[in-house]
Design brief:
The structure is a homodimer of 409-residue chains.
Chain A: E1 3-8, H1 16-31, E2 35-40, H2 46-57, H3 63-87, E3 92-95, E4 102-105, E5 112-116, H4 119-126, E6 130-134, E7 137-139, E8 145-147, H5 152-163, E9 168-173, E10 194-196, H6 197-205, H7 213-222, E11 226-230, E12 238-241, E13 254-270, H8 275-285, E14 293-297, E15 303-311, H9 315-329, E16 334-347, H10 357-367, E17 375-378, E18 381-387, H11 391-401
Parallel strand pairs in A: 1-2, 1-9, 2-6, 3-6, 9-11, 10-12
Antiparallel strand pairs in A: 4-5, 7-8, 11-12, 13-15, 13-16, 14-15, 16-18, 17-18
Helix pairs in contact in A: 1-3, 2-3, 5-7, 6-7, 8-9, 10-11
């Protein structure tokens, strides 16, 4: 008998009928001889409604109180799903984040899971109960309500699976799994049967927003095998797990693309210690998330040049933050900006043991006449920027060049 | 500096504007030099909406899950009221039933408060915070969510006041206080400045539904002085407190009336031990709340006669429950029923030390030509039934007879 954790998002529980469907699916999994634990989000729309009321009272409501308010959304869902299970003859019980023993640290509205005490869940499972656990919420050691921020219910599911040593954690969502590339862009993209944690992390940070990175990191840390699969059908999805030797046979697992990027290039900066730190510091203070960071220095004039990419909506903020600093540092500094670019990343642990990967990728792009802007690499990723108008052609070219439409033998 | 607990019901917090008003009132009380703790209900309509969803899933939803679901209503209100206080510059914090240390026993949906652990509330008060506590909810010793049933928020307010040794607990409601009689019936009814717990209990059980009896009993047990007053104005209300010697100078504190009553009379029952128990037993099994119970036996034929009053909606159920029992007991039993009656109760601790109270009351009714049906007395109450069409005349006559329109000297 396998222990399976199933996570259902807000759309999956967005109406009374859908809640009945979720209960039916949990019952089916149970009837197939498994123990099942559901982890559920707030019904879609509920969280936004609560935030709307809070903002009527205060444009920047207290984060402590926002947590108390928002945690009610998931608490309502667990009760309703448990009722639906009971109505279908399944002995069920709801479990709040607190009852699940999900202890958190960090700030309100973005708590981090620090510890799990699954005593009550274990007792209920031993009693034969099917549990419905509130996603997105936990408590601090002194009993304050915390929510876990974006992707918090995924994180809850992974943490519950870890604490109970579940056999698998199913993340049921509106996509079928993880694909070699976005199927809306690359028609012959293929659903991956499996992907390693590290590859999933690189895909996530490169724009394939199936899951937040921290949930994947948490799963990797505790060795939780999870599966991304559709909540709308019974097709197998994509297993995310620790890499095993066979996985290295595949050079590139997948390609992710990220649009609406912008680049800032600062040149004419004297190459002195601490310069990069100052520049990155003002951008961090302005709460701008940088993605690619490339720096180099010319031997001729000993001036350095720094390029960063960011989401294009942050471009104005970045310019405003940099101008006073550069005026202070040197009169010769220049800022150039470029919007309308996109990033393409090829990801695969096979890269470690295969040479010539970058060459294949750059040739594929060159053959299509697509110019490469910045380049950034990690051990298992090569990322490039291209003009946004070319990103779909670029993705198809690289997908073809690595033969990703065909299952590896 | 007085510590004041203020309880606000669902209507008082029924919209964002009203929540702002509640916060303003709490702030005003604080600005007058007091410490304030709010105890709040779910926003009006929220609880019914949640019950509606539950009933869509299951006509008789699990009471455990209903508690988990309904407790979210108050949790939302505490966060919103705390946000409103913060927006008005008051350092505030919401407190769930669990955080307030309200421990309960008994069944789900009708928990009873068994213990209070106000550690967290005390810590927050010491930090200068104004607390907003969720009414209607508590937890069992093993951490399950409980709700307290009808009037549960009043009970929470009294319990919080008891645990924190508050100076007074204000029950803010849609009536101005406790009156000598319902002012819609007796135009010159007078608001009472004070009333004893025992009188309040007799008034409550006699139809003056300002508060549930158990909240008054809880206040009496722990010596919590509370005040019933309007949430719409600043007028003083009615203090409910332990009786003091001066109170006995008033013979009758107030008169309460209860309409839509019905009477069942069973006659021809052999006067044997256990007969009354059997009859009351079947009525209890049918979940019929009996009010007045009168029995007597004739020496002539040794047959006994039992009369009960109940709400008229229970009359059919009572007849159905009694018929098979009487057929089994004796072929001579007869059931008579009478609907369309009402009960009038005169309540006052002064009755203990004044004689002739019943005579005054019966004469007042007789002078108006109003016939008395059943009579039932306690140490501090005389209750009679009359035809429902006469109840208002009866109330006015008795109110006049005891001079209740005039404040005692």
């Amino acid at each position: 008998m396998a222990l399976i954790v199933q996570k259902y998002g807000g759309t999956s529980v967005g109406s009374i009928d859908r809640i009945r469907n979720v209960a039916a699916r949990m019952k089916q999994t149970r009837d197939e001889g498994n123990q099942v634990i559901g982890v559920v989000s707030a019904m879609s729309g509920v969280t936004d409604g609560l935030i709307g009321m809070a903002k009527e009272l205060d444009e920047n409501p207290s984060e402590r109180e926002l947590d108390v308010l928002l945690a009610t959304g998931e608490q309502q869902t667990i009760a309703l799903v448990a009722m639906a299970l009971l109505a279908q003859g399944v002995d069920a019980a709801s479990i709040t984040g607190r009852q699940a023993g999900i202890f958190t640290t960090g700030s309100h509205t973005r708590g981090r899971i620090s510890n799990m005490d699954p005593t009550l869940m274990k007792r209920f499972i031993d009693e034969g109960k099917t549990l419905v656990v509130a996603g997105f919420q936990g408590i601090t050691v002194d009993g304050m309500v915390h929510t876990l921020g974006r992707g918090g219910s995924d994180l809850t599911a992974i943490a519950v699976a870890a604490a109970l040593k579940a056999d698998v954690c199913q993340i049921l969502t509106d996509v079928d799994g993880v694909y070699t590339c976005d199927p809306r862009v690359v028609k012959n993209a293929r659903k991956l049967p499996e992907i390693s944690y590290d590859e999933m992390l690189e895909m996530a940070s490169s724009g394939s927003k199936v899951m937040q990175s921290r949930s994947v990191e948490f799963a990797k840390k505790f060795g939780v095998v999870f599966e991304v699969r559709s909540s709308l059908n019974d097709n197998p999805g994509t297993l995310v797990l620790e890499e095993h030797p066979n996985m290295e046979n595949v050079v590139i697992r997948g390609i992710s693309i990220e649009r609406s990027q912008a680049r800032v290039t600062i040149s004419g900066i004297p190459d002195l210690p601490g310069m990069s730190g100052k520049i990155l510091g003002v951008l961090a203070d302005a709460e701008i998330n940088l993605d690619m960071i490339v720096s180099n220095t010319s031997n001729d004039d000993n001036l350095s040049r720094h390029s960063f990419t960011m989401h294009s909506t942050d471009l104005g903020k970045a310019q405003a933050a940099l101008k006073p600093l550069l005026a202070e540092l040197t009169p010769n500094a220049q800022i150039q900006t470029e919007a309308g670019i996109a990033k393409l990343s090829a990801v695969g642990i096979g890269m470690r043991s295969h040479s010539g990967v970058a060459a294949t990728m750059f040739k594929a792009l060159g053959d299509k006449g697509i110019n490469i802007g910045m380049i950034s690499t990690s051990e298992i990723k090569i990322a490039v920027t291209v003009d946004e108008v070319h990103i779909e052609d670029a993705a198809r070219a690289v997908h073809d060049a690595f033969g990703l439409d065909k299952a590896p033998v």
